[in-house]
Predict the 3D structure of the following.
Amino acid sequence: MSGAFARLAAAQLLMTVLEEGRTLDEALGSTDRFDRLKGPDRGFARAMASAALRNLGRIDIGLAPFLDRPLETAPPPSRALLRIGAAQAWILETPDHAVVGETVDAAKRWPRAQRAAGFLNAVLRKVVADRSAFDAAPVQAIWPDWFQTAVKQGLGDTAAQSLAEAQLHTPDTYLSPKSGNAEALADQVSGEVVAGFSVRVETSDFEALPGYEAGDWWVQDVAATLPARLLAPAADETILDICAAPGGKTLQLAAAGARVTAIDRSKPRLKRLKQNLWRTGFKGDVDVVQADATTWRPEAPVDKILLDAPCSALGTLRRHPEGPWIKSEADVQRFPDIQERLLRAAAEMLKPGGTLIYCVCSPLPHEGVQLVDRVLSDIGLSRVAIAPSEVPGFEDGIQANGDLLTLPNGKFQHDAFYISRLQREI
């Protein structure tokens, strides 16, 4: 019985994401049936939903031969249960009898899906017997067509293939040490030092790790640590962290002893930033400002600025594989407008000779290098090339113009970040 409830919860998570356009994290926090699950059932429901989202396009291709009409025409509950069933069979390798029996039982317990129980039973019996169409689908078919095209045009076939393959794996968890001593933190949490400055841990239950309550570290993808590191913050420098929430980069800057002002327009996101500052002991060391940075200005120009601009976030597919499915091509195309306005505003806040890091967690050129190229000529900034010695483990991501693009490289898992280091002309 509990197996049916776990599958029902997984299907409802999937519906919340795909029908309502919400992230999986949001769905996990707002789906009643998932919230009622305990222990292994809760973990299994999450695993099923995550596996389905990581492989969604290929799952749909795999299901197509067993359907008389396109999957999109099926009612959302039936569609969700089919995808959850396929994820069990083809990705999680759940026993055949459980895939069919428990998933059909879930339909029978769900008023919105009860009438489809016979249909689901017939299709899922074919699913467990034949995975050939799923296996034959190219890896990049996990994405919708528009995103496949955008990545191939922007990055090339090889990089697109690497990004797709990286999405198939459950992401590692990385910690950033408050002290800066990655070796000591690795010993404390039984982790592994990566790239010399981050610590990889096996568990996703990070709140149970030693040092969490004491604020000795914070969760932060290893690639996400690079923008603050490349800014090279020093004690007593005045630094603006624009679009700062939820605060991982803010914590890095504060740990270096800089005088940091963290700016974000979102009150809920700033609440998370303040919680992180409180837990790590930096609450009194950072000025937090809720404002629109396109119009807000500091009292005087500052030494350095970190601008982690709003973006499509399509470089974080390892952790958010639903991204291309809950965004449209039009959604993604709208970001350069706000990115350019923020970059121009940041340039006005910087002292002559000051350093500005522009970064986005997106690999798409129109949000990164193309935008920077377009505005550099008239905002009084010039590039400062990133050197291989500054980014151990990411050396092969340095571009010909000196920018950094952290695409998967086979050394370790990480997000895709575009980073450009700029300097105000004197």
Observations:
- The chain has a mean pLDDT of 95.
- The first strand starts at residue 173 and ends at 177.
- The CA atoms of residues 355 and 423 lie 5 Å apart.
- The chain has three domains: 2-137, 170-219, 224-424.
